[in-house]
Amino acid sequence: MKTLLIPMVASALFASTSAFALTAADEYGSPAPVQASQRTIVVDGSTRYVNVKQGETVTIRTGDTSISWYFDGILPVFPLSKILPIPAAGKPVQVYVAPHLIGHADG
After folding, report:
1. Residue 15: half-sphere exposure toward Cβ, Cα within 13 Å
2. Domain range for residue 92?
3. Tens of pLDDT, residues 21-47
4. Which of 1, 39, 49, 87 has the fewest CB atoms within 10 Å of its CB?
């Protein structure tokens, strides 16, 4: 009985942990309609980082490419290339997501 129970418990544990895998949307947020955007950030060759707020919808533009994004993911810092391809000549750009403070005057 013990030899049958151990593989069943191990199988159940593996199945339960894989059910909680994070998605890209969980980590970074998700695309949004351009009409929902609250502002636009233009990224060029001198841009090293962009600052956004948790829960904010922003359009980010680089060259001829743009994306509107709702920043509701769990990561406070991540490479912009995770959501928007940066031209090869561009340097890495980091996204810094400020936490949403409940009850704060501007948030």
Report:
1. 6
2. 2-98
3. 889 899 999 999 999 999 999 998 889
4. 1
